[in-house]
Amino acid sequence: MGHGHGHGVPSASGRYVPRLVAALAIGIAFLALEVVVGILTGSLALISDAAHMLTDVFGLGLALTAIILARRSGPTYRRTFGFYRAEVLAALGNALLLFGVAGYVLIEAIGRISDPPPVPGLPVLLTALAGLVANLAAFVLLRSGAKESLNVRGAYLEVLADLIGSVGVLASGAIILTTGWRYADPLIGVAIGLFVLPRTAKLAGRALRILFQHAPAEVDVERIETALADLTGVRDVHDIHVWTLTSGMEVASAHLVVDPSAEPAEVLTQAQNLLAEAYHIQHATLQVEPAESAKRCEELSW
C-alpha cells in the first residue's frame, strides 16, 4: 500500500478568515438598520432584503465556525479526515437558508400583488443606498475566496444576492418616490427571490456532489484510469475512486495490477507523479498488486 504526498493540507478557506470576519461585521451593522426601517415602513422589498441579510450574518458565522473547526480539529485516529467536511455542510446549510428566504419572499409578494400596501419611498431609498455600499464592500472582500472554497462561495452568493437585492430595493424606492406606483415593491420582491433560486440550487448541487463522494465535475475518471493503465509495468487498473474531501482537497484511490517483472516502487512513484502533475491530485492511496492478488477484488460484492 502506498500513499501520495502529504496526509492533509489546510483548507483553501483558511486564509480568508479575516475577510469573512470583516464581511460579518458589515452584515451585522447593516442588518440592524434594515430591520428597523423595514418594519417602520412596511416595505416588502426592504424586509426581503433584511431577511437575506439575516441569512448572510448566519451564513457567514456558520462559514467561520466551519473553517475554525476544520483548522483546529485536524485528523485523528478516530476522525481520520478531521472536520474538513464541516465546510461543505456549512455551504449546504447556507443553500437551505437561501431557499427558505426566497420561498418566503415569493409567497409574501404574490399575496401582496392583489392589494399592495402604501410604502414610503424615501426611507426605503436611503436604506437601500446604505445597503448597496455595505454589500459592495462585503462582495469585494469575498470575491477571490469564492473561486477556491465552496464554503466561502456559499457566503459570497448570499452577499451577491443581497447586493442585487439592494439594487432592487433602490429601484423600488425610486419608483415609489417618483411615481407612487405601489406595485413596484412586491414585484421587485419577486424578482429578488427568482434571482436567488437558481444560484442557490447550483450551490446546493455542488455541496451534495461532495457529500455523496461523486467525482469532481472537472475530473475525467475514465481518462485517469486509462492514463494509469498506460504506465510502464501496469497490466490493469481497478477499484479506482476520485472524490473531494472539501474545497481544494481532491483524493483518489486505485488498485494497480503489475507485471511480474515490474518494480512496484517505480510503478507507485510514476502513478503518484501522474496524479499530482496531470490531475492535481496530491493525496492518493494506491495499491500495487500482482495478478494473483487481484482475483480477490473480483470476488468482492461491491
UniProtKB/TrEMBL annotation:
The record's GO CC annotations read: plasma membrane
Q: How does it sit in the membrane?
A: Multi-pass membrane protein
Cite the source lineage. Answer: Bacteria, Bacillati, Actinomycetota, Actinomycetes, Pseudonocardiales
Q: What is this protein called?
A: Cation diffusion facilitator family transporter
Where in the cell?
Answer: Membrane
Q: Which organism is it from?
A: Amycolatopsis pithecellobii
Key word Transport present in the record? yes
Family the UniProt entry places it in? Belongs to the cation diffusion facilitator (CDF) transporter (TC 2.A.4) family. SLC30A subfamily.
Q: Which GO terms describe its molecular function?
A: zinc ion transmembrane transporter activity
Which NCBIfam families does this one have? CDF
Q: Where is the Cation efflux protein cytoplasmic domain?
A: 216-290
* Keyword Glycoprotein carried by entry: no
Q: Provide this UniProt record's keywords sorted from A to Z.
A: Ion transport, Membrane, Transmembrane, Transmembrane helix, Transport
- List residues of the Cation efflux protein transmembrane domain: 20-211
Can you tell me where the transmembrane regions are? 20-47, 53-70, 82-107, 119-142, 154-177, 183-201
Task: Give the matching InterPro entries.
Answer: Cation_efflux (IPR002524), Cation_efflux_CTD (IPR027470), Cation_efflux_CTD_sf (IPR036837), Cation_efflux_TM (IPR058533), Cation_efflux_TMD_sf (IPR027469), CDF/SLC30A (IPR050681)
Q: Which SUPFAM superfamilies match?
A: Cation efflux protein cytoplasmic domain-like (SSF160240), Cation efflux protein transmembrane domain-like (SSF161111)
